[in-house]
């Protein structure tokens, strides 16, 4: 399949999401990385966004809570090219009513080839990468052939 190059700018659009049992971990992580995050545009779902804004002291673009559609809002922003980077501290031991939304969000991150971290160790490696503060050409499959097949039946 042919590919397009999509340039991710030096200043990233980062989505931060956390399940209830992981919110404290994400807040601690974000506070530790406050300086690195401060020049990026940060999006977050519901309560996570409120907590982050209080802790970090800079504006967070707050969306709905995950169960109220926040995960889907972030997924839509990924598709529209409005999110470059996803950090989602999810709790694999907790079954949630909005698990299908979580799976859809993770799927969108993979389909649109954006960096994603689901735990603190991966988030640490990703945010400390030299690529975090540089432009980056993200390869994206040309989905035209797929779209054509779907329309043709």
Question: Could you describe the 3D structure shown?
Answer:
With 153 residues, the protein is α/β, with parallel strands linked by helices. It has one domain (10-134): Methylglyoxal synthase-like domain (Rossmann fold). The chain has seven helices and seven strands. Strands 4-3-2-5-6 form a five-stranded parallel beta sheet, with helices on both faces. Strands 1-7 form a two-stranded antiparallel sheet. Strand 5 (85-89), helix 5 and strand 6 form a beta-alpha-beta unit. The model has no long low-confidence stretch (mean pLDDT 92).
CATH class: Alpha Beta
Helix amount: 40-55%
Q: In terms of quaternary structure, what is this? A: single chain
- The 3D shape can be described as globular
The main sheet comes to: 5 strands, parallel
Q: What integer is the average pLDDT?
A: 92
Content of β-strand: 15-25%
Helical element count? 7
């Amino acid at each position: 399949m042919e590919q397009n190059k999509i340039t991710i700018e030096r200043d990233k659009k980062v989505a931060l999401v956390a399940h209830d049992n992981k919110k404290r971990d994400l807040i601690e992580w974000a506070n530790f990385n406050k300086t690195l995050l401060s020049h990026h545009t940060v999006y977050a779902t519901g309560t996570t966004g409120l907590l982050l804004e209080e802790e970090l002291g800079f504006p967070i673009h707050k969306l709905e809570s995950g169960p109220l559609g926040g995960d889907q809002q972030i997924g839509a922003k990924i598709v529209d090219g409005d999110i470059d980077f996803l950090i989602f501290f999810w709790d694999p031991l907790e079954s949630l009513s909005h698990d299908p939304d979580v799976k859809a969000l993770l799927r969108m991150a993979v389909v649109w080839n954006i960096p994603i971290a689901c735990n603190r160790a991966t988030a640490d490696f990703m945010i400390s990468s030299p690529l975090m503060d540089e432009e980056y050409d993200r390869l994206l499959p040309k989905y035209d052939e797929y779209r054509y097949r779907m329309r043709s039946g």
